[in-house]
Amino acid sequence: MTTDIKRGEGSGLDALQGIVEGRYPPPTMAATIGMVFSHVEAGYVKFHAMADERHLNPMGGVHGGFAATVLDSVTGCAVHSMLEAGVGFATIDLAVKMVRPVPLHEAVIAEGRLLNQSRNLGVAEGSIKTKAGKLVAHATCTCMLIHP
Predict the structure, then answer these.
(1) What is the per-residue DSSP string for 51-114?
(2) Could you state, in order of their start, the residue ranges of all structural domains in the chain?
(3) Percent with pLDDT over 90 in the chain
């Protein structure tokens, strides 16, 4: 594995594909949450994630923040995959809808797709599904694009 990605050295797609291919280390949040990048293309990303005992709420279920963080990650990365070298982004709005509880110790599939991009904003949608295809949560996200 090579060094960390330096902002401005390549496009967003190059950076994300480098993570999938193992040329760059994943972001530290991926380890915190238990996310693995599995596929990236322009405007689309796919992750696998698994909640464990680190992600429980006081009732013993998976905290809603787990799904929100995974959805923020896949929607943000869908936007990131379309950015030119040197352009950054920041989430300015994330609307999450929980449909069913996130399963504990069961891999889920998270996907993010770019819906629209202008010079200053990127809008994406994301979903988390069980391996059987049942929807767990979905979200829309708006990102502000930061130009050098």
Answers:
(1) B-GGGB-TTSSBPHHHHHHHHHHHHHHHHHTTPPTT-EEEEEEEEEEE-SPPPBT--EEEEEEE
(2) 12-146
(3) 93
CATH architecture of 12-146: Roll (3.10)
Tell me the C-alpha distance between 91 and 76, whole Å.
Answer: 7
Neighbours of 20 (CB within 10 A): 18
Cβ atoms of 129 and 135 closer than 8 Å = yes
List the one residue out of 41, 44, 33, 43 whose CA is nearest residue 107. 33
Tens of pLDDT, residues 47-92:
999 999 999 999 999 999 999 999 999 999 999 999 999 999 999 9
Q: Is 110 exposed, middle or buried (0-12, 13-18, 19+ CB in 10 A)?
A: buried
Give 21-40 pLDDT, tens digit per residue.
Answer: 999 999 999 999 999 999 99
pTM for the full model? 0.93
Structure tokens at 88: 């950054």
Q: Can you tell me the distance from the alpha carbon of 74 to that of 115, in angstroms, rounded to the nearest whole number?
A: 13
In one-letter notation, the amino acid at residue 64 is G
Going 17 to 22 to 28 to 32, the CA torsion angle's sign is positive
